[in-house]
Amino acid sequence: MTKEEKKDLIETCSSLSKKFAERASEYDRKATWPVKDYEDIKNAGLLGIMVPKDKGGLGADFLTYTKSLEQLSTGGASTGLTFNMHNITAGILSESETKDIGGSRGKAMNDFRDWALGEIVNERKMFASANSEPGIGAHFSALKTTYKKVDGGYIINGYKLFVSMLGYADYYVVAARREQSSGDLPEISFFIVELDNPGIEIEEIWDTLGMRATVSNNMRLKDCFVPNDKLFLGTEGLGIFKLTREPHWVIGGYVGTYLGICQATFDYMISHLKKKKIPGTDQSVINRDWVQRDVGRLAVELEGARALVYKAAKMVDEHRGKPETNVAIHHSKYAVSELAPRLASDAIRLCGGSGIAKSLPLERFYRDARCGGLMPATSDECLLYAGKSALGFDLTQIKETYW
Amino acid sequence: MTKEEKKDLIETCSSLSKKFAERASEYDRKATWPVKDYEDIKNAGLLGIMVPKDKGGLGADFLTYTKSLEQLSTGGASTGLTFNMHNITAGILSESETKDIGGSRGKAMNDFRDWALGEIVNERKMFASANSEPGIGAHFSALKTTYKKVDGGYIINGYKLFVSMLGYADYYVVAARREQSSGDLPEISFFIVELDNPGIEIEEIWDTLGMRATVSNNMRLKDCFVPNDKLFLGTEGLGIFKLTREPHWVIGGYVGTYLGICQATFDYMISHLKKKKIPGTDQSVINRDWVQRDVGRLAVELEGARALVYKAAKMVDEHRGKPETNVAIHHSKYAVSELAPRLASDAIRLCGGSGIAKSLPLERFYRDARCGGLMPATSDECLLYAGKSALGFDLTQIKETYW
Amino acid sequence: MTKEEKKDLIETCSSLSKKFAERASEYDRKATWPVKDYEDIKNAGLLGIMVPKDKGGLGADFLTYTKSLEQLSTGGASTGLTFNMHNITAGILSESETKDIGGSRGKAMNDFRDWALGEIVNERKMFASANSEPGIGAHFSALKTTYKKVDGGYIINGYKLFVSMLGYADYYVVAARREQSSGDLPEISFFIVELDNPGIEIEEIWDTLGMRATVSNNMRLKDCFVPNDKLFLGTEGLGIFKLTREPHWVIGGYVGTYLGICQATFDYMISHLKKKKIPGTDQSVINRDWVQRDVGRLAVELEGARALVYKAAKMVDEHRGKPETNVAIHHSKYAVSELAPRLASDAIRLCGGSGIAKSLPLERFYRDARCGGLMPATSDECLLYAGKSALGFDLTQIKETYW
Amino acid sequence: MTKEEKKDLIETCSSLSKKFAERASEYDRKATWPVKDYEDIKNAGLLGIMVPKDKGGLGADFLTYTKSLEQLSTGGASTGLTFNMHNITAGILSESETKDIGGSRGKAMNDFRDWALGEIVNERKMFASANSEPGIGAHFSALKTTYKKVDGGYIINGYKLFVSMLGYADYYVVAARREQSSGDLPEISFFIVELDNPGIEIEEIWDTLGMRATVSNNMRLKDCFVPNDKLFLGTEGLGIFKLTREPHWVIGGYVGTYLGICQATFDYMISHLKKKKIPGTDQSVINRDWVQRDVGRLAVELEGARALVYKAAKMVDEHRGKPETNVAIHHSKYAVSELAPRLASDAIRLCGGSGIAKSLPLERFYRDARCGGLMPATSDECLLYAGKSALGFDLTQIKETYW
Questions:
Q1: Domain D129-237 has CATH 2.40.110.10
Q2: CB of D349 less than 8 A from some CB of B
Q3: Whether pLDDT at C104 is above 90
């Protein structure tokens, strides 16, 4: 993308976000898909944000994507987070340079890639992910969902949690372990399951503190058949290796969302404080030096987190998969995820009693903010990763990671 | 109370609390009064917890009360908080030794006191408070609600926010400024307004992040007539003086509630962690040393806040109204109010993704926890009070306080 | 002790402390024993503070002792810390009720106890401790110093670190492992080594950031002979059991010292701020609300730590050795040890550039403050202990502790 | 500079720093100028690091300078800090594009600039600064030091604190207020005073907690004569305007130093932990997950501060003097100054008892680390600046700043 195109894209996202902001409260309250937001995204041509230009997409780099996601998420955090789920698939595929791989495997990869990117760009289809499972979170090495080869395809059985957009998205990338494969490094593969596949069942249990409009319900797979050509990238066993070596999508994809929540919280706080008066006076509370000082501290923390997020994203663009890039991603994931609830809590304290009314967005930010650190890699996993890295452990070794 | 009576009382509260816990989710969701909890409280004879024994009550001291409230609030935070609103009135009246005051003023005080305590003990009536107003919070020196003397009573006009239990409680203690009185130290008086007084109107706007079952709606007073004998303690101008000299009820009354939320959060976290497994294993996560260490830190913080709360309550019993007592109250209010959201946030982080489900209480604790620091004295007011005190300012001077 | 005696004792300590404060800078700079402070302590009859009245001492309880130590340490932190080393021995002996133990073992215990307490009270002798060793800290189960039985006594060989007062104190309680004993629970015994025992050698390496006047040098024991009657309490194998069951002396003994440092830091900060002007004005900086607010926060933290320290000390007096008492000790140790450096750092920030001059005590407080969390149980060990306790581990099991 | 030149410069600094590290302990202990370090700096041609290439210097940009200073300061913090004092003058002069200013004023400016840069590059002269005064810190609007015009020059009278390198540096830039000028915006000018000017007297009072080798003594100016051509940039009244509009040198100059201290602390901690064993075992403590986690958190904080420092420096290069640049400088100053003592305190806690020995550098880092937040703009001034900026105050207005 040219510099101008990047700027335009981010501005488009910023302007869509204002519409999302108006709808966010209702989607949150009802815990329903932000369907109108998705339509705006589709109409703006953003489904292909990560798809290479030669495949009909916008061809955004990771930094531009991160900033775009941040903008979208200031208005619609759940919208942004689920849009990112779509882009995990689009992004990984776009980065997979399959052209030079020959033979039948190369063909399978190319065919799959072309099909998937085509669905996105031409058919406006959305992709979602089904990874987490009960008791193991997103730790792929312990996956209980299995697949086995059958004629013409694969049969999957298992149970998935937290499948965002389940029921709305068109396709679900499902992670499964090959039936006989076990041990520390089981063979993990991904499959594309269509929404109307009769082998899946949706269990509607989603009712949570925050990020409610992600509608992340549970998916049960019962002898779910997937044809050969819907094996992800036409290749078995891609799973853990990819996650360990290039975690920027599954870890660093949504930091933009939580940065957006932080920014929205901060902006709302500023505007609220400007209007709030010192009790019994006409003077704004922003004239109190302790208010200035608290706001100042939060500004430093916000900019510190932002600097880590942008730095990590830029490193993905320049040195994808390098150990220092992966560490930077984990740094940024931790920083922004744990800043979010702290910032929201302080913002409520500063804004005072009216700040908790459901008619204002601050209480939603407070609820949404607490969710980031629970998504993979969790805040504690990020710290262990960062610490191990600083202490000289080799994090290209899967056993040193949390997968 | 004897030692044994204190123990029994606290145990009664603890056992009621288990019932409250079962109902809390529903009351929270609907934002309705916890009516069954209130009935339990009434049936257990707790309405008179602060009423002296010679007036038919339990005659609890402030420390025992605080521990009782803590217990009640572990199960029903909104129940505890509103019950405390009732006890602010009961407690202040009980502490007011009016016996030796002679003359017509003495008679008016005694009559009022006997009437009010009698309503509580014999008629099982609940009292609530109406203090806060738009733009001034609970800063009494800036009250806009006014009263004027008329034949046989007073006429009140004004608008009150955050009136907990409004619509359920039988009586409302309304703070108002004498019409012609102004300046830094206006004459503030309190009046008892009955629920069915035609001069009040309830505006149902309550819809908040947390403490939802307190149902703290707005009250509009339009030429609201109150007869002479419903002037609080038969005395005009009690207001700011009382608040400045003996803030233990209006500030320190509900720290028990937020301590209860902290304890409930901590207990739930412990039980959740014990059941949570290290992904892919049968081992509990409590075997991880970093989990132990985080839990340890939270335990120290919780016990530190508790120690401040109990110490302040004991000082109220031993040195009511002394400057050091009032400082201790503000210390404890700050400590427990700001610990609560931090603890709840960390508890969610430690418990992981399932911790945000609305089927579990943790997400409610997280929401309720953020509200304590917004109630008077707010966390920031407490810090200023504590700092001024340490720096040698004279906080018996009203201008140095936040009233 | 009567209430009056307690008050007098604490006042005596407070008044001695003012003298210590005048000398502290010089002792710190030179890293020499605070000999004049020790003489004041001896002249005031404080060596026997823990010795029961019937043995000629003051018979202080643990809470009164803690408050006394706090006072002494506000002026002389190193003095207080080393005085506590003396009292570890005095206190453990005083608590050991040996009267009813019959037979030769009972006689040996009684004789030893009478001798040691007599030395303290009648001969004004000071006791020190030699526990830590290279690479193991104070983890007794891994002690490398050994002893073996010989005719008339024992021979000890080993190397001890951080022996406070080494060269000044009259007697050293040396921990050693029985030569053939090993495994998880080796037999650990204590011996009294006199200063002029030819079997010890002092290695003068002490030169540290803080607590410099404790002069905690290294002791080498080479075939050091100790006669039978200098076996601690006439009993082998006392070690780990005692430490695990009743850690109040070795863990909780010196929290009073670090609380004293905190208090001294806070008091100095207040006095400094009162004199400090807003640049270019005659107004004190204490009129700035953010200064008040920061001071307020520190006041809450200080009082929170103090409340934990006093509560734990009171529990020692009322429920010595109970699990909840031991947990409370670890809570207080952590809270006060980690508050100290944070408070000192903030105090310097608030006091500004002149606060780092060596002519003022603040910079010494900052240095001394960092040392508390390194002494057993270290801050991190305290957290693990607190966390395990909250999570239901049985900390009477030695394997669950850090010994 | 080319990319290659930048890399070489930073490497040169890194390699000099290793030598500084060996000498740092002695300079710190004696509080003497790090003369050998200065010689290394001179021999490496670094005095002219900020001098434009066309004037014979290296022509470093601000980001490269910041990284160079960071490197130098990892080994010699006091060396780095004082070297920065020199570069404040060199940098401000280098940035002052005087070429196009005509007339006698232009000539005076050019002559001064050429002279000063020539002294640096050709004569290897070092410049220092004399700004702070008793009771006002570095708040220029309240300066008490005055100057008046006399024949051939100016007469200065006053008293300056914290003049780093006083007695070693060749020239001192002294800030003074024009005698008759007062009010909110007095006329502040700068003058070059040579070391051997008989009008100055050095008061040797420097003895501090940290940054001891900066030897920042006091300077008394008694009828100190300065010839016309030593008026800074040949222009009176430059002072406050410059400081308000382009604070990057006086505020942001030394963040590189404190970032260097942070990095050195972190690096030392890592190497120490790798060698430290779990007590009684041969296993390194780095295998403990809570150690990894704590190290991880510190790594995130360090990288967050670094990201802010580099970002601000880059903004200076790209948008010097813009409001957003100035805010970024204050963000970075706060972040790194307050991280430093927190990081050092945690590092000591993690490294344990041996970490406080004066034979190891950690205790010096802990002492040096606390000094950054006291230098202008102090940490609290930075927060107020950051807060005001976020709240919409106009910080190009001098009254809104701390000058």
A1: yes
A2: no
A3: no
Residue among B63, B255, B303, B331 with most chain C CBs within 10 A, to mutate: B303
Whether A209 sits inside 8 A of B342 (CB atoms) is: no
What does the pLDDT read at residue B137?
80
> Could you say which residues from 352 to 391 on chain D have a Cβ atom under 8 Å away from some Cβ of chain A?
380, 382-391
Residues of chain B numbered 303-322 and touching chain C (CB < 8 Å)? 303-305, 307-308, 311
Chain-chain contact of D384 with A308 (C-beta, under 8 angstroms): no
**Pairing mode, strands A171-178 and A127-130:** parallel
Tell me what pLDDT residue C141 has: 83
**Chain A nearest-CA residue for B294:** A380
Residues of B in contact with D283 (CB under 8 A): none
CATH placement of domain A3-125: 1.10.540.10
Chain A residues within 8 A of C288 when measuring between CB atoms? 289
Q: Residue with structure tokens 């800090």?
A: D81
Chain B residues touching C308 at Cβ < 8 A: 300, 303-304, 307
Q: Which residues of B touch A402 (CB under 8 A)?
A: 279
CB contact under 8 A, B209 and A139: no
Coil, helix or strand for D188? strand
* CA D250 to chain CA centroid, nearest Å: 7
Helix ranges (H only) for C45-151 are 62-75, 77-95, 103-123
Ordered DSSP codes for D21-90: HHHHHHHHHHT---HHHHHHHHHTTGGGTTS-GGGTS----HHHHHHHHHHHHHH-HHHHHHHHHHHHHH
D300 to A334: CB separation less than 8 angstroms, yes or no: yes
pLDDT > 80? residue C240: no
User: Cβ separation of C391 and B292 shorter than 8 Å?
Assistant: yes
Cβ <8 Å between C293 and A290: yes
What pLDDT score does A164 carry?
97
Contact, A129 vs A119, CB < 8 A? no
Give CA separation, A188 vs A135, A138, C281, in Å.
18, 12, 71
pLDDT at D253 over 80: yes
Fold of D246-400: Butyryl-CoA Dehydrogenase, subunit A; domain 3 (1.20.140)
Q: Which residues of chain A are in CATH 2.40.110.10 domains?
A: 129-236
Q: How far apart are CA C343 and CA C250, in angstroms?
A: 24
Name the fold adopted by A129-236: Butyryl-CoA Dehydrogenase, subunit A; domain 2 (2.40.110)
Average pLDDT, integer, range D241-262: 89
DSSP letters along C164-202, please? TTTTTSSEEEEEEEETT--SSS--EEEEEEETT-TTEEE
Flag residues of chain B having pLDDT under 50.
Answer: none
Taking only the tens place, the pLDDT of each residue in A8-60 is 999 999 999 999 999 999 999 999 999 999 999 999 999 999 999 999 999 99
Query: In which region does residue A60 sit, left (phi positive, over 0), alpha (psi from -120 to 50) or beta (all else)?
Result: beta
Query: Looking at chain B, which residue has its C-alpha nearest residue D289?
Result: B290
Nearest to A208 among B281, B356, B380 (CB): B356
| Average pLDDT over every residue of D74-95 | 96
| C residues 276-305 lying closer than 8 A (beta carbon) to A | 288-290, 293
Contact at CB, C136 and D373, closer than 8 angstroms: no
Q: Where in chain D is the domain with CATH 2.40.110.10?
A: 129-237
Contact B296 C384 (CB under 8 A): yes
Residue ranges of chain D assigned to CATH 1.20.140.10: 246-400
Contacts of residue C222, Cβ cutoff 8 Å, sequence gap at least 6: C157, C199, C200, C201
Q: Where in chain D is the domain with CATH 1.10.540.10?
A: 3-125
H or E element that contains A176:
strand A171-178
